């Protein structure tokens, strides 16, 4: 069975302690895991149901706190823990292709005039600058709190990737602006 990133995140959380799905959702948002995994309440509940169907998590029972809806608490099974570890080993072992939108937009940018591309890349660069500043602040905060780096290493990685992306985009804008990167619209529409 192929696990989705959301299912793997659920297994990881349930490996720490039993939880109900709403608690999982809250913890993921608190830890900013939504920057790594697309987290929506509906998809989270669906992922938990699939994991239970596949025997990777099991229900420990249902409770109903006063004034609250009924909540089912889950824990990871031994099979679930092994599936999580297998997924992590595979992810760390070799590069896996991903299909983000930005590289495709770059591949198709030759359909636009160079000055339009420069303007759009400048907007992208601005939004990237805001994200980098936010990530730098988050890394500084965990360092101040002296949290072990093993628990936030992905933030350091993502920051390095965004900084490299920022440098590349700034250089590309410069190359387009100076004409070092010749630009020809591919199509006339």
From TrEMBL:
Originating organism: Microlunatus endophyticus
InterPro entries in the cross-refs: Tscrpt_reg_PadR_N (IPR005149), WH-like_DNA-bd_sf (IPR036388), WH_DNA-bd_sf (IPR036390)
Location of the Transcription regulator PadR N-terminal domain: 10-84
Coiled-coil intervals: none
Protein name as catalogued: PadR family transcriptional regulator
